[in-house]
Design goal:
The complex is a heterotrimer of chains A (449), B (65) and C (121).
Chain A (H helix, E strand, L loop, with lengths): L10 E5 L16 H6 L10 H10 L11 H9 L6 E5 L9 H8 L1 H15 L3 E6 L2 H16 L8 E6 L9 H8 L23 E5 H13 L1 H5 L9 E8 L5 E6 L4 H7 L11 E4 L5 E3 L10 H6 L8 E5 L5 H15 L5 H18 L5 H14 L7 H15 L1 H7 L29 H4 L1 E4 L2
Parallel strand pairs in A: 1-7, 2-3, 2-5, 3-4, 6-10
Antiparallel strand pairs in A: 4-11, 6-7, 8-9, 8-10
Helix pairs in contact in A: 2-3, 2-5, 4-5, 4-6, 5-8, 12-13, 12-15, 13-14, 13-15, 14-15
Chain B lengths: L2 E3 L9 H5 L4 E3 L5 E3 L10 H10 L5 E3 L3
Antiparallel strand pairs in B: 1-4, 2-3
Chain C lengths: L1 E7 L9 E5 L2 E8 L2 E6 L13 E3 L2 E3 L6 E3 L5 E3 L15 E6 L4 E5 L13
The chains are: A alpha/beta (449), B alpha+beta (65), C mainly beta (121).
Chain lengths: 449, 65, 121
Amino acid sequence: MTGAALADPPLVGAITVGGERLLQQRCDRESFAEYRAAGGYRNAVRGAGVLRELSVAGLRGRGGAAFPTAIKWQAVAERPGPRHVVVNAEEGEPASAKDRWLLRHRPHIVVEGALAAASAIGADTIWIYVADRPAAESAREAAAELRADTSLGPIPRINVVEVPHTYVAGEETSVVRAIDGGPALPTTKPPRPFERGAAGSPTLVQNAETLAHVALIVRSGAKQFRGAGSNTAPGTLLLTISGDCIRPGLVEVATGTRLREVLALAGGVRGGGAPAGFAFGGYFGGIAGPRTVDLPIEHDALRTEGIGLGCGAVIVLGTHRCVVAVAATIGKFFAAQSAHQCGVCVRGTAAIQGALERLRGGRADPANVEQLQRFAGLVRGRGACALPDGAANVVESLIREFPGTVADHVGRVCLRCRLPVDDVIPNLAARPVTSGARPEETRSREESQ
Amino acid sequence: MRVQVDAVKCVGNGTCYEVCPSVFAIDDWGYAYAEADGQVLPDDEPTVREAIQACPEMAISIVPD
Amino acid sequence: MKLEKVACLEELSDRKLLRLKGPGYDLCIVLTDNKVHAFANRCPHTGARLHASRVRHNVLTCSHHLAQFDLCSGSVLTFPMEGLDVEKTGPLVVFDAEVDADGWVSVDLGEIELYGRGPVR
């Protein structure tokens, strides 16, 4: 599957306050000259100054965990070198497209962020890790453009690594393993990449959007960055909104914006009426009820409601959708995307899939619902990566947010469940390559400089 | 002392559970996990060490301090 | 339980953790911003040891999942980067540390049971 071009998401707008943003209304690729003319690569702050600025900005990771970047960077910086920076643009969540869009259309803003990171933590190698072929080509071209321009002085070497598009490939230990020449599959932690990553060195694995924010922070300063969004998770964030909405695509909003406003930007629910719910964080964050439209889109605020914002992918479920059918389809996805490395993941996700499908087919009894809940508890936190937690989130959110709907499905056939939901719950064409495959078959790699 | 079961290595032999049921548990599919996040009471330490030795897959390890 | 004269000020270099382990206790003391802090050598997130952690001012960063705690109150400043229910991470157990006129440090452990499984999840 290496080298496949994935769908290019259209832009649907932005709700932000002033200043530079990540999204620009464009269908083409921003060239080096264009980016430079617009103020790029003039970073006033370098080295330790970047870390200070980042700490003031309070930037939190946009890959899903929303961990404060400054703390992670510090942890890498204080370990003995050589050190590596990895731009993680492999969005395993099928509903997310933001990192792909950035690399395809604005590769230099991501690369500048990676250069700032390398300068801050003292790294001498940058890896751009990606599954989408056009994004990889755009990144390679960006590296070549940088190399051709001598005015920037010495810069770290930039390598592009292409991997197949699978759910687990974006996990940070998969990233490290693939860069080291292995398959893009997760490994047991510890060690975590910040302790021992690529080539055994401390490695900063950071999501592409996060690094794009870094580029804007070093250019315009932390104060400007904090000018938008909430106090605990400031700035703007990219959302990929899809499913049953009129205009699916990418949105850039200040954190804390209500989902209702984002839904309005996307043209509202297709077919009218109130949404049946939302699948959050791609598939990882679980399914949230219609009440979510009035919640602020911010990691902490959603977390207290039991919803994971994840990488900012939101799937709108139209009035006619049955959430049980959606949950069963997502359960099937997780079972199929298991890397078959951990027994508990293989069996656990399969058991969850089976139980959800029984519920969808009207073949479940009350004991099956309890069993489903027990399965979710058993798989949580187990295995080398968070895939089992994703399956657990779907089950737990379904039972917590839609108790009535679940009860209605016990021993009763739901007609709406018969409708396929594959149009809003896309699958991935590739499955994880299980261990034993030769590295040459799973990836291609191009080095520059 | 704290222990962890490597989910990648565990194939569900169940030896740890037989040797030290107070710390290890078996899920619905036969795979082992350490209860209470792997925290081991001082009294359990000898049997836990025995369980570590007994695991044919060498899947159990002590989390380093 | 009170531990008398566990260390003297000269032994403590700035922001370097000193681990004190004995029957029934395992704790760390650290001198930072001219104040001595004492805390249980156990991260409330996973129960991992803390003596390899980093201290800057009154902030302790756990070396395992990069959770941050306030050394004065023990409160969580940053939740850990991964693991089970990170938001349920409780506060760090901190103890009263006193420095007498001669520069000797004493730590009051109170009634807290240091060993045992404790509320880890």
